[in-house]
Amino acid sequence: MDIYLPIAEVSVNWPLLVLLGATVGFVSGLFGIGGGFLMAPILIFLGIPPSVAVASQASHVVASSTSGVISYTSQKAVDYRIGGVMAFGGVVGALLGVELFRYLRLLGQADMVVALSYLLFLGAIGTLMLYESLGQILRRVRGEVVPHKERRRPLWLYGLPLKMRFPRSGLYISAIPPFALGAFAGVLSAIMGVGGGFILVPAMLYVLRMKAGVVVGTSLFQIIIVTAMTTILQAGRNQTVDIVLSTILLVGGVVGAQYGARLSGRFRPDVLRALLALIVLLVGIYMGLEMFVRPSDLFSFAPGVAE
Amino acid sequence: MIAALPPPPPAIVAPAPERSVATTEQVRVAAAMTDARVMVDSSFRGASIVLYGAVFNPTDRPADVIVVVRGPDGPVRLVKKTRNMGFWVNSRPVLFEGAPGFYMTASTRPLSDIADFGQLRRLGVGVDHLRINAPQESRTVTRYGVRDVVVSRLGEDYLDYRRAVIRLREAAALYRTDPDGVEFVDAGLFRAELELPAVAPTGQYFAEVWLFQDGAPVSVSNLTLTVEKVGFERDVYELAHRRPWSYGVLTVLLAAFMGWGASRVFRRV
What we know:
The structure holds 2 protein chains of 2 kinds.
Chain A: E1 2-4, E2 11-13, H1 14-31, H2 36-45, H3 50-74, H4 80-107, H5 110-142, H6 156-159, E3 163-166, E4 171-174, H7 176-192, H8 197-206, H9 212-238, H10 243-264, H11 269-289, E5 299-302
Antiparallel strand pairs in A: 1-2, 3-4
Chain B: E1 28-33, E2 37-40, E3 47-56, E4 64-70, E5 73-84, E6 87-90, E7 94-100, E8 103-107, H1 111-114, H2 117-123, E9 139-143, E10 146-150, H3 158-171, E11 175-178, E12 182-186, E13 189-196, E14 203-213, E15 216-229, H4 231-242, H5 244-268
Parallel strand pairs in B: 2-15, 7-10, 8-11
Antiparallel strand pairs in B: 1-3, 3-13, 4-8, 4-14, 5-6, 5-7, 9-10, 12-13, 14-15
Helix pairs in contact in B: 4-5
């Protein structure tokens, strides 16, 4: 049941990969996320070289986000205007990120930067989400009324030039913050192999203050463009995309995502968020741990590049 | 006569079989492999190749066989983790100019019993004597925009790095020493098994079959082996390296198509 992956140059058990794709797809459907942050650590754990894992699973994010965007488009819940600005930023970020990743990889520091990014971003997001969702669950159980805080957009958003109208999101702001946000997600997508939804969605909600209804669909749209770009760039610059690996993951992934999406309606949103927060936090800690534990072998190979 | 030989561990003696006049004079070894080509396809999980051969030994002194298989040479970059303010961080990469991607020895006895240190070192037989290219002086080279330190043969940490390369490759089953991997199946007829792991690099492999007598090489037979990707695996690999951009676009289109397909299929169900 083993299959030899032509780019990763290892042989793996393919039913296990289908199952992994299905599990991650299920989680991503359940929580409405790309699931990249979960896939990369597991692939690395299975012995796939990190650079191949990060580059190949970006296309898994493309597939799971595509089916998402299609359904959100039919509900008119995608703002293509602001999504386009963010995607433009994302492409620029992906270009920078792939070059940065290439340099770090050759420097032998890619593993550490990947670990550190996971620890920092997933740790921070996971903690915040857990705190917020647990608070909400507690209030619900005690029957308290949620205090409604009227948050305002930060004033600096209005001081910037290049103002644009985004009617669907109900915004009239400078194009610079969405562009910068997209660029940041693009860099992360290249380094961590994630779509960046876990950064984009909160930022779009709480910083840009977009209409809640269009946030998820728009972020998915941006994620498709960026991860597609990342996949092409990784293939073109680093030759680290394994089409066999990504296709096997996809087969399980797309099916799992559909079932996950169906099941998500049965849970309360705050419980779902608390669960997701826990997973995010655990993955972040797991990936970060390697920096603090004395490695079993101090030496390791650094990758070269085919000349 | 044979019983009078030093016992631990007894070398295998190849008693002289009946032969033509030409081969009765010199001590010789001849060898061949079951496969000259190993094809890596989607079901590749490593390969096992049998190397077999014959020893012509007209003398009454025992002879030992050592089989050495080397894979294609390539530069090796290595990083070492050091503790820095509580974090384990990688050092700047160090570079060996060339080390075999695969290295295996199989012999009738432990190598150190067959020949002395100098002899093995000179021939590069055994992982301890493996030639890993390193210049006399340490220097810095810029490769792919990164400054690497090239390991110097005379540097104090050369041995540490060298041992690390061997240890890591041994862990991946790429380097192996098998002190009783050469087995005599019949008088003068031996076989050795060559195990290629799935991670074995593709390219040209060279096998040397040495015949040692009294600690000195008396005969050698050279063989080659080609490991190459074939079929779908090769097509994918070639496409990814020759036309990387089209390959990337293809991957994305495939992913988008599958995402779209899944949403269509599941909407109907």
